[in-house]
Amino acid sequence: MARKNIPGYLHHKASGQAIVVLDGKTIYLGKYKSKASREEYEKVIADYLANGKKLPPTKTMAGISIQELAVHFLGWAEGYYRKNGVQTKTFNFCQKAVSLLVKFYGNESAKDFSPLSLVFLQKKWVEQGLGRQTVNRNVRVVKQVFKHGQKF
User: Fold this and answer.
1) Is the C or the N end of the chain the one with fewer CB within 10 Å?
2) CB 129 within 8 A of CB 97
3) 10-residue block means of pLDDT along the chain (152 residues)?
């Protein structure tokens, strides 16, 4: 009987997210064992198999939601912001900044995010009682998310 060799639904313990590794690329699916992550896994695998066991062409920012962009960014940041194998505080700042971005704009297309949207987020951080330096750092992280999104 032939093996199907379908990549597995895996647990990324450091982030608590479900992942699948396709063609050497890690794809984050959402919270491990959640219904949404299982559905995303099935969708990703279906696209992978339909494309002849190759990753489908990457989406442009016009076709990607802010939530998808945030997942890609945090996946990158998790590996980048390490020192001697230990997660740095910068990654935690990234997670906090991205969480509010996703809360208010997660389902919108990345191309629809405007400077006024960023001003709205700034006001929300100020309302939370965050200081000027923290608000400015969060703004830089949000800008970094979109700059990272231009790479794929």
Assistant:
1) N
2) no
3) 75 86 83 89 87 69 82 90 90 93 90 92 95 96 90 62
